[in-house]
Amino acid sequence: TNLTEVAITSTSATSIEVNGSSTMTITGGEGEDTVIINGALVSNLEMSNIENLAVSGTTSLDLDNVTVDKVISLDGALTASNVEDETFVISGVATPSSPSPSLTATLKDDSGATDAISVEVLQSATAVTTALTLNNIETLNIETNVESGVTGDVEINLTTSTTGSANQSLNISGDALAKFATTAVEATTIDASGNTAGVNLLLGASDQTITGTAVDDVFDFRANADANDSVDGGAGEDTVMFDVGVATVSAETTNIEIADVKFTAATTFDASNLTDVGLIQVKGATGTLSNIATGTNIEISDDATITLGVKDASTGTADSLDVVLTKAGDQTITSLTANDIETLTLSTSDTGETTITTLDATSLTTLDFTGIDDVLKITNELNNTSGMDILLGNQSATTTAVSFTLESAENVSDTIKFGDALVGAVEITNFTAGLGDKGDNLDFSAYGVTQSDDLSITYTGAGATAYATIDITGDDNFGSIKLIGVEDGELADANFDFA
């Protein structure tokens, strides 16, 4: 039958098959109208006043004769050409008969410098990555959502390019966590403030200005960061990540709480631009962190040789760092250098034996071991050039929890202070006994010991094999103090402080 005009009055879904050679025009009425096409969009079908075009089983879509507000891909890979102002919704589930959802969009005219496209990625299943190829488009608006009943993140593999020297902007919105972690995003401006669930961004080599969400975000610069990059994490606990194989100056950060620095070679990472960062996680075998803000927490997770430098430390008098050694099991720090720092706090987060071969910290006035809850050994003698307080406590009382060697200079007087709850077994070499105010000191005032009669002091051996052992009889919370090299009669009243 040759029909020239068809009026559809049904209120239910209607199917029309177009298989003739004449041009067919579908004109929508009031409301939001949707045309659903299963298969290819035939060239003799034209639409007007249609808001939505939903396609299923379609791999290629030419929008030259189609005027719609939104194109919805229900499954599979979609290549759209002659794109103008359409918004795309990419959905679908990867199955043996249906490939992972994707969109390759080509504009009808991409010669301008302000071209834009809007894409919603609607996740229909977990563990599916949607590939978007959006070339020669200056503004990308990408919204990430998940269908009702689906949990998980929206993972996107975004490939883009621009013409000439044009910059590109990426705006990320939606209610699902957006992961761009497959291909580095090269957009020069990235604004994710419209997303409510967070972003995980692998970043490219271009100079980038980035705005995060109000929840937890991850910004992974890999080896692409420099001082021309900037990132504002917004609210939430945000992390910025760097791979450091050559001398690198950090990106400028605000509202970033954690910096993950992975050394892939023995080089320097300049942390001077890490504003608001309270924790730096250090990975790799050898590296130098310079210009760290005083008071920053440092976590070292590998066997390593690490140098730490606080910004303006040479002129400061109260610079401090907290270092947590986090490797599971035994950990060896061949050298930990922290010069021009007055207070260094060392702690561990896992069971096992931690060895620091050399602790190079000449300016220390306080060395805090109260966070050591397992075994810590410092092999070589400390090299502080003036007297310092060494804080102990909270260690196991049944094993040698902490062992270290004081500097050998007899004109430097150190004070070992014991905490008020639990004192572990401690082994100290080079303790200077006697010598009045030039000797080293054991301070029991915080622990509550009031007099030397409360202590049990035993001397063993003589000469090179001599040591003194100090215990508190009947106190299960107090381990023992072993002073290697101290002979009988050398300890004097000046070597003790009591409550």
Overview of the molecule:
With 499 residues, the protein is mostly beta strands. It has no helices and 44 strands. It has a 19-stranded parallel sheet, with no helix packed on it. Strands 22-25-27-29-31-33-35-37-39-43-42-41 form a twelve-stranded mixed sheet, with no helix packed on it. It is elongated. The termini are far apart.
Put the structure in a nutshell.
The chain is 0% helix and 45% strand.
Q: What does the secondary structure layout of this molecule look like, with pairings?
A:
Elements: E1 24-27, E2 34-38, E3 45-48, E4 52-56, E5 60-62, E6 70-73, E7 77-83, E8 87-90, E9 102-107, E10 116-123, E11 129-135, E12 139-146, E13 154-161, E14 169-174, E15 178-185, E16 189-195, E17 199-203, E18 209-211, E19 218-220, E20 230-232, E21 239-244, E22 248-249, E23 252-254, E24 258-263, E25 268-270, E26 279-283, E27 286-292, E28 297-300, E29 304-310, E30 320-325, E31 331-337, E32 343-348, E33 353-360, E34 366-371, E35 375-378, E36 389-392, E37 400-405, E38 415-418, E39 425-429, E40 441-443, E41 456-460, E42 467-471, E43 481-484, E44 496-497
